[in-house]
Amino acid sequence: MIVAAPIRHIVIVGGGTAGWMAAALLSNVLPPDRLRLTLVESPDIGTVGVGEATIPPIQFFNRAVGIDEAEFMRATEGTFKLGIAFQDWVRPGHRYMHPFGQPGQAIKGVSFHAWWLRLRAAGYTVPLSDFWLAEKLADEGRFDTPSSDARSPKSTLAYAYHFDAGLYAAYLRTIAEPRGVMRVEATVAEVVLDPNDGTVSHLILTDGRRIDGDYFIDCTGFRALLIGQALGRPYEDWSHWLPANRAVAVPSARTRDPVPFTTATARSAGWQWRINLRHRTGNGYVYVADHIDDDQAAATLLANLDGQALSDPRFLRFTTGRRTQSRYKNVLAVGLSSGFLEPLESTSIHFIQHALIKFAATFPLSKDDPLSANLYNRMIGEELEQVRDFLILHYHANQRVGDPFWDRMRHMDVPDSLAEKMALFRARGCAIFPSQTLFQEPNWLAVLLGQEVEPDSYDPLADAGDLSDIRQGFDATRQIIAQTARAAPLHMDYLSRLIAPGNRRGAA
Ligand SMILES: Cc1cc2nc3c(=O)[nH]c(=O)nc-3n(C[C@H](O)[C@H](O)[C@H](O)COP(=O)(O)OP(=O)(O)OC[C@H]3O[C@@H](n4cnc5c(N)ncnc54)[C@H](O)[C@@H]3O)c2cc1C
């Protein structure tokens, strides 16, 4: 058996959300007596500075880091998120929500929505959203946490956060540094490769210092200093399916109590986000440069704020896609250096945590461990392709006829993997698909139905039983959901109690 030299020193390059998430997690899960962590961040190169909405798995990450939820919400100006409201996506005036959690609970092992489809085919007009507690809470500006009692309607809940990503990174720094992470404030001028094996040997900083390491985590954002510039790993461009390549962002003054959901409003060349934090509202227009110029995009954004702009609009450019090998030799790319899917379903911060957790699960045996790297790259690739398909669905299944950008999206060829999912849903209302890791049946269901992809039939197992009994059960469930929602605290009341000075909640 060959015993390879183990990893003793990991160097994280970049101090944005990805860099500090890496430092906070790895300093908690890797043995400190055997492994050193250094983080290099440039005082001259800024962070992306947007990224305010998350999805429920972030609670798992915060737990793994050992974060107290009350302290975290105080530190990041956070609010709760129960889902995303999609305004005007199907056609102007149309609205639906992608709520977290699930609608109702499976009956006799058959998905709740299959019974609902059967009832609907028999003339039942109550929308599925009436059985989705997260959506009912969001509609009423209320919030509650999930119950671990499977009999409670609250067991169907799930939630995430909105927060100020800059404050989150700063907060994670206060956790990582006391755990021994060494922070170096400097700009990397050169990445030097070992001529023998092509691994990264060391970094040269602009002040002449040298930083050696066994393993390097590239968190340098879109620059991709190590994985792209030094190691030349190619970038797979997905913009033929997801053509948005620009964003303009501006914070605005808070004008009312924050709502517990993100709003995504379709616009002529893309869509606009609105995210309510406690100290301000985050806004941005994600758009396709072929269909609108920067000035028009900024004017559209500024005309659609619900409070006074707090700064000049900030422009960002990106190409949707991924690095097929985001782990190669002794480099792991995390965050924007590894790829970018636009923020429609708030997945980027999730991809950071997913990358770190999978990295820890396939921790390299030595500097160059291609077997573990291949496994890692395959796992990350599958998750990204799933999410890519999910995002394309939002754009493709539209009825905004006569709007050039939306016509283009409706008529484009979608990946075979998405075409198959849509065909399955149309044929039998099925939203359970292979490799469904992040977005699962309820998520696909919400967006497929929301975008008016209509099933012709439903799971034949839902044909069991008497229709009037099923209807009675549904009516009773609907009432319980409505009562549970009405009894829940208002979002802001819940938040105010949580963030009261000195209050602690324990790991999220
Ligand atoms: C328009 C838009 C909206 C978004 N919205 C969301 C959202 O709602 N939810 C979500 O989850 N995500 C969102 N994201 C993504 C999210 O912002 C990023 O995933 C996240 O901020 C991680 O960025 P990063 O740390 O990889 O890169 P960056 O923030 O760009 O950080 C790069 C770091 O690398 C350092 N660096 C670069 N070069 C060098 C060098 N030579 N030497 C030393 N240091 C260097 C910089 O100083 C900086 O610290 C959005 C992104 C965009 C573009």
TrEMBL record:
FAD binds at G15, G16, T17, A18, V188, L336, I349. The active site is at K81. GO terms for molecular function: monooxygenase activity; nucleotide binding. The keyword Nucleotide-binding applies. L-tryptophan binds at E345. InterPro entries: FAD/NAD-bd_sf, Flavin-dep_Halogenase_NPB, Flavin_halogenase, Trp_halogen. Keywords: FAD, Flavoprotein, Nucleotide-binding. It holds the Pfam family Trp_halogenase. Signal peptide: none annotated. This is Tryptophan halogenase. It comes from Niveispirillum cyanobacteriorum. 7-chloro-L-tryptophan binds at K81. It comes from the Bacteria.
